[in-house]
Amino acid sequence: MSLNSAQQYHQNMLHYLRKDFSFSDAGDTLSMGWLPAGAVVIDAGIVVSTVFNSGTSDVADLGYRNSGESGTSDDTDEWMTDADLTAAGYIDADEIDASVAELYMPNGAEAVVSYASTGTAPTAGQAHAFVTYLVDNTDS
After folding, report:
1. Are strands 89-92 and 39-50 parallel, antiparallel or unpaired?
2. pLDDT tens by residue, 14-38
3. Residue 117 near residue 32, CB atoms below 8 Å
4. Distance between CA atoms of 26 and 39, rounded to whole angstroms?
5. Are 131 and 79 in contact (CB under 8 A)?
6. From the CB of residue 17, how many other CB atoms can be counted at a distance below 10 Å?
7. pTM for this structure?
8. Cβ neighbours for 49, distance < 8 A, ≥ 6 positions apart
């Protein structure tokens, strides 16, 4: 998928990307979609609707990869690292802060969620990851 496939509407509104994932996605890094050039990430999180139940731990990361900006490293846990998925409810992306490197995507990037389990393989778990962002409407 190219950076040209980023979601951007012409109205002034908050944009978001969402990806549902389940216990069967253990070990995978899943694409949430593309942030367009000039996007500013303002929030992210995960809603656990069915608790995950592996033998030891169930954790998720939120971040990005395939940044269009040369010199910008992929960081698939930039916004959230090792969020515990063993309780139902909302988990805020606790690593979003004032660092421009993790909030402003001058050339776009692919938002991702990664889920990992350890111990006995899980048999249940469903969650919904999201990233909220502003688009660049400065030329409008």
Report:
1. antiparallel
2. 899 999 999 999 999 999 999 998 8
3. no
4. 29
5. yes
6. 23
7. 0.86
8. 88, 126, 127, 128
